[in-house]
Amino acid sequence: MDISVFILISALLVGLYSAINIGANDVANSMATSVASKALTIKKAVIVAAVCNILGAVLVGSHVANTIRKGLIDPSQFADKPNYLLFGMLAAVLASALWVNIATYFKLPVSTTHSIIGGVLGFGLVSVGFAGIEWKIVLYVVLSWIISPIFGGLIAFTIFSIIKKFILSSPDPITQTRRIGPFFTGMVGFILSLAVIYKGLKHLDLDFPLLEALLISLGIGAGGFFLGSFLLRKYKESDMDPYYQVEKMANPLQILSASFQAFSHGANDVANAIGPVAAIVVIIQTQEVEMQVSIPLWLLLLGGAGLAFGIYTWGHRVMETVGEKITSITPTRGFSAEFGTATTVLLCSRLGMPVSTTHVAVGNIIGVGLARGISAINLDVIKKIFSAWIISLPAAGLFSVFLYQIFLLLF
């Protein structure tokens, strides 16, 4: 077998392995609250997450893949030695996947974005040195990790505070749910469709200008409003506690927001698996380091399929930690957290910012908990999660350096 064919097959397998582990660890970000609130069973959650992750990866995923592939290290530094970049990217993906695999085994929700960036920086430091790293890009990425959970947490805090004030604290919460609920379904439909339609369908040769995308999204949002209104009017009241009934009425809304979040996860985190693989494929095909290369559709499909398989096999392990151990989750709280996370991740994805979905999701769950007071948060669990986050980047970086040196010795 030709060495380039062997390396290409190896790269694709490593990228698939990485995508599987990302799906297994990060499914908790989108589905944990739905399972914890009993809106979905685990079986249904993994099916919904798998489908939505594939759609997000294929329709919107290429934007962030470009940032991971050629943002942190300038590829032109490898113009006279493209194989060094090839082996470095291969080491980065495998290192990230190994660390995420270990974390998932211990049921720790770690940042797969941290891991792959740690892997890229690890081989970058030993191959081109400190001066060869685009530190402005690194700073931009790190700031996004800090800003995004705060921003998302504020969204979740605000949404749940509105629900708490105008629905849960009202004398007639069921009537108020029928009045206000449709606005939330419309809002989800508008934001999700806008994220997809506006510059998100280029792989399908569809590129709508902003005004047209806004009008189409407004139409879809209006459809979501009327659908929500129809479903809520059909709900038959019972003699049970009205607040329990409100939470039950919120189940479809939480499932919708969970699907929204799973879609955004596929859009953002598929880059962690296929971004470096895209660089490897281009180098093997051209024997050159290209500065501008589009991410092929088949590679996005491969990454999306890997995410789905990981969700199906090991996705339940981290769900327990995120969905049940941080704070108590109900459908209204779960919707607030999921909507805030999905909105933040999709916005950052459209801007090409590889944010940590894990950071955003945990930040939103904390935001929802804080809406009920600091006592509603399990601080011990938060400390453990934060510790795992701190370890992720250096752990993946060290794995990457070790693997990079082995690849150079072998090939």
Describe this protein's structure.
- Helix 1 (3-36) crosses helix 2 (42-60), helix 4 packs antiparallel against helix 10 and helix 4 (82-105) packs antiparallel against helix 15 (379-410).
- The protein has one domain.
- With 411 residues, the protein is an all-alpha fold.
- The protein has helices at 3-36, 42-60, 62-70, 82-105, 112-127, 135-168, 173-197, 210-234, 242-249, 251-286, 297-314, 316-324, 331-350, 357-370, 379-410.
- It contains 15 helices and no strands.
- The radius of gyration is 21 Å and the shape is globular.
- The model has no long low-confidence stretch (mean pLDDT 82).
- The two termini are 14 Å apart.
Write out key terms for the chains shown:
15 helices; 411 residues; mainly alpha; 0% strand; 79% helix
What's the overall geometry?
Answer: globular
Radius of gyration: 21 Å
**Count of distinct strands:** 0
Number of helices: 15
Mean pLDDT: 82
Distance N to C terminus: 14 Å
Number of domains: 1
The profile of the biggest β sheet is: none
Structural class: mainly alpha
Q: Report the uncertain regions.
A: none
Helix content: over 70%
What's the helix-strand series?
HHHHHHHHHHHHHHH
Q: Estimate the strand proportion.
A: under 5%
Could you write a compact summary of the structure shown?
The chain contains 15 helices and no strands.
